[in-house]
Amino acid sequence: MDCGIVTTPFGRRAMSLGMLAHQLSSASAVDEGKVDKWKLFRTVCAAKSNLGVSDRSLAVLNALLSFYPKTELEAADGLVVFPSNAQLSLRTHGMAETTLRRHLATLVEAGLIFRRDSPNGKRYARRDRKGAIGQAFGFDLAPLLSRAAEFEAEAARLEADRRYLQMMRERMSLCRRDVAKLVDLLRLSDVAYAEEAEARCQAVSMSLSRKPSIAEIERLLPVLALLQDELTNRLENLLKTQNTAANERQNERHIQNSESDYLSESEPADERLGVEFSRKASTEVLPVGQNASGLSANIEAAPLPLVLKACPQIRDYGPSGRIDNWRDLLTAATVVKNMLGISPDAYNDACATLGPETTATVLACLLERAEHIHSAGAYLRDLTRRAKSQSFAVSAMLSARLRAQASVVG
Predict the structure, then answer these.
(1) How do residues 295-308 score in pLDDT, each as one tens digit?
(2) Which among 230, 362, 239 has a CA at the least distance from the CA of 307?
(3) What's the predicted TM-score (pTM) here?
(4) Could you read off the pLDDT of 3-13 as tens digits, one per residue?
(5) What are the pLDDT digits (tens) for 338-396?
(6) Any idea what DSSP says for residue 116?
(7) Residue 119 has what DSSP assignment?
(8) CATH of the domain at 97
């Protein structure tokens, strides 16, 4: 039988408000909930950068979890483990006792565990006549159980930020390459402007750190994209002055034919909708002046407002229950991925093939039909396979969702 929710440390260690807060917040785990301890441990490892714990502290936490007899942490079975320092040292590959104490203190301060010290400071358990544990003194794992949802949300946010940063760095790299190539091309006919453009590009590059942050890229990418637009327009004007009148008429006929092909009345509505997606994606999804080179060669991202209109449920999984930009949608998609049971391999393959934004859009659509889908992971793998063979369009999924909404309203 437990002595109470709050327990004070043995010896000279003083009680702090932080320790008290962690113990009180963990009280809810005493009555309900259970979670796979190793899955939870991997989530904590993914969120470690914001928890204030090091790899070695996590190694100690791993050892503590290994002393819990069951795979699932459950309050009804008791959450206190009571290994000696000698046993802990063996399971942390010979970690020195002083180092062990320091990392245990770090885990307590971070609110991942708290101490339940006995009257003499020893770790042990009292058992009844049947051998069942009645009261245990050692390290309580209740904070892990009570904060499981918090750890998962933080890990999802960090994963979404990592993917978003990777995507933005790729776009910055592509934009810098495009500007450099266009400057070299323009130098053949307009040296003065080419040198000016090169100086502006170098100024942007000089202001970037070696490993630029999201904020740096979001600030400088539009500047570089604007320069790319200016160079493109200047080269386009140069081409117009060099073309003959016959070539101009031929180009005009080609453009007219292309437009008629795209907007043919005999074309299905979903395909026309896909064309609109492609046009809007270049201005609404990507930074100003940036093309879709950072995404899949065949899959264009749909405009974010249209995604949210077709799949409103995804908003509930965004930061603070809302989605204001693609970064928020990527965070929500990571949470939904875990909720639908989609494996990291299936998700990563989809991101590599479809692009992060389109993958997030697909997950938003799957969330709308979650109750009708037997295996979301298998569904996503099938869509990824179809995308590789160029037989998948996200526009079709979104238009289906819009039609479903219209039929419900009607």
Answers:
(1) 443 466 788 899 99
(2) 362
(3) 0.57
(4) 445 565 644 55
(5) 888 898 889 989 998 888 999 999 999 999 988 888 888 999 999 999 988 888 888 88
(6) E
(7) T
(8) 1.10.10
Count of domains observed in the chain: 3
The per-residue DSSP string of 172-218 comes to HHHHHHHHHHHHHHHTTT-HHHHHHHHHHHHHHHHHS-SS--HHHHH
* Of 242, 276, 295, the domain-final residue: 242
What single-letter DSSP state applies at residue 369? Answer: T
Whether residues 103 and 185 fall in one domain: no
**Helix and strand numbers, DSSP H then E, in the chain:** 17, 6
How many Å apart are CA 21 and CA 93, to the nearest integer? 33
Q: Which residues of 13-29 are buried (b: 16+ CB within 10 A; e: fewer)?
A: eeeeeebeebbeebeeb
Helix (H, G, I), strand (E, B) or coil at 130: coil
Q: What angle do CA 26, 38, 54 make, to 5 degrees?
A: 75
Same domain, yes or no: 24 and 141: yes
Q: Could you tell me if residue 69 is inside a domain?
A: yes
Return the pLDDT at 67: 92
**pLDDT (0 to 100) of residue 190:** 81
Residue 80 or 296, more confident: 80
The residue segments making up the domain with residue 212 are 161-242
Give yes or no: residues 21 and 138 share one domain: yes
